[in-house]
């Protein structure tokens, strides 16, 4: 490996707000926000919308994460509703 061209890898906490779960892992990402972890040390924290704890594929559910109202907007625009499919 060439010296001084690779980013520094450090411990970082990734926090999933939807599932209220946090993971401590190594990453090259950095953040100005800090959090105190279970071991008493302070680490940078990065908030994510979806992780393996809340994603329907990994969680085993068929939940729809629709934070922006996209499904309702699609149904209004194209005139599809639940009653017409039955």
TrEMBL record:
SUPFAM superfamilies: L28p-like. The keyword Ribosomal protein applies. Keywords: Ribonucleoprotein, Ribosomal protein. The keyword Ribonucleoprotein applies. GO terms for molecular function: structural constituent of ribosome. GO terms for cellular component: ribonucleoprotein complex; ribosome. GO terms for biological process: translation. Belongs to the bacterial ribosomal protein bL31 family. This is 50S ribosomal protein L31. It comes from Streptomyces arboris.
